[in-house]
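Hi,

Apologies if this is the wrong queue. I'm a grad student, and the batch job for Periplasmic protein thiol:disulfide oxidoreductase, DsbE subfamily from Roseibium alexandrii produced an output file that my downstream script rejects. I'm not sure whether the problem is my script or the file. Here is the sequence I used:
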Amino acid sequence: MSTLENGTGSEPKKRGFPVLVLLPLIVFAALAGLFLFQLTLGDDPSKIPSALINKPAPEFSLEPLEGLSENGVPMPGFSREDLIGQVSVVNIFASWCGPCRQEHPLLEELAKLDGFQLLGINYKDKAANARRFLGSLGNPYDRIGVDDSGRTAINWGVYGVPETFIVDKTGTIRYKFIGPLDPQSYETGFLPELRKIMAEG
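Support response: The file is valid. Your script probably expects a header line. Output copied below for reference.
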C-alpha cells in the first residue's frame, strides 16, 4: 500500500463536493420555477396576484402623446382624477411590443362598446413610433398618457407590456389582465368582468 510522500502513513483525505459552488444555481432555479409557476397559474395570466386589486389607483399625471390628434383636436393625456366618475379600462401599450399588435384588434372592438372610457398608457416609446403604430392599426383610446420613464407603470405594478386594468367609478382597481388579450380571454374573462363592474352603478 502506498503512503503519502510526507511519510505519515495516513491515507489521503477525501474531499466532499463543494455545495457552496452550487448554491447560486439552486437559488436561481428555485426563483425561475416560482416565476414559471406564476405565469402558468391556471393557464390564466390574469390570476397572478396583484397587490393593487381593490385598492385606489396610484397618483399619476401623464402628458399627452405629442402630435396625436383625433378629428383635428389634440388628444389629451390623463391623470388619476380622470378615473373618477366613470368606469375606465386602462391599457399599457408600446409600438415596439409585438403582443400589443396581437391584441390591438380586440381593443378596437372594445372601443365600440358604451359605458366606460378606454385609456392608453404609452410605455417607454418614441412619439413618432407610437403615432405610426396607432395610424396603422387604429386608435381605440379616448385619452393617451405618455410614460417615458416607466415610473407610472411601476406604480401600477406592471409586469410587462401589454397589461390591461379595469378601474371602477371610485378610482379603485378591480381587475388586471397580464399579457395580450386573445379572443378566448376577452370573451370569457375580460368582458364579463367589465360588464359586472359597469353594472354596479
